[in-house]
Structures are given as structure tokens and as C-alpha cells.
Amino acid sequence: MIKFLVRYAKFAGTSAVGSIVDTLVLWLLSDLIFTRGYWGEYIISPLISFQCAVTVNYLISYFYVWKDRTRKRSDASVRRFFRLYGAYNLSSSVVFLFRLGVLLLIERFFGWDVVICNLVAMCFTGIINFAINNLVIFKKKKTV
Length: 144
Description:
Layout: H1 2-33, H2 38-65, H3 67-70, H4 78-110, H5 114-137
């Protein structure tokens, strides 16, 4: 149980870093590049900022949070690294679509700024991401 809680704390720290990257990129894009129009501000900017955060989160997850399940395995390779990245990106994308829906609902109901809507939506989807990462993407290797 202690190991699980330590891993969750590491994941939460990783998520915080990813949230900072996501929020900073989203802020820059929505305030400096996509300054006019709903699609640019509420769809394109979050998509780009999300991909930046996914890449940062994956690197930290692979080399730090789940390193005992990735680096010490006999099948650790560049090919496996990118295969896991693809699976990580896919699962993160599915959760992102859910987060985007939550973001849009929050914006519709409260009319808040996209950055605030995104932060609230991330709180709802963090636990889902941890479960997918722990149980599917970086699952324990079965012992014989």
C-alpha cells in the first residue's frame, strides 16, 4: 500500500508538471496566437497544449514514476518506449476528449476563461488517468 501511495504521489507531481506545461502553452496560444474565434481559443489551443503536456508527462512517467516497470525489464528497448508512448498518447487522448467535454460544459454553464475551465476539468480526469496508467499502460509484468 505504501508503494502504491508513493507512486500516486509521484504521479500527482508529474500531473502538476504537465498541468503547468498545459496551462502555460494554452495561455500563450489562446492569448497570443488564437486571439479571435471560438475554435482557435477553445478547441485548437487546448489540443496543442494537451499534446505538449502528454509528451512531458510520458517522459516523466517512463523514466521516474513507473521506472521499475519499464527500465529494468528485459524487453526494454527503443521500440517498446515508442509503443508505450503510442498507448499512453491514445489513452490520454481518450481522457482528453472527456476533459474537453467537461471544459466546454463548464464554459457553457459558468462562462469562465478557458484556462480556468481547463484546470477544473483536469481535476476531474486525473484519477482516471492514474488508473489507466497503473493498470494498463505501465502494468506490472506477470511473474511466472
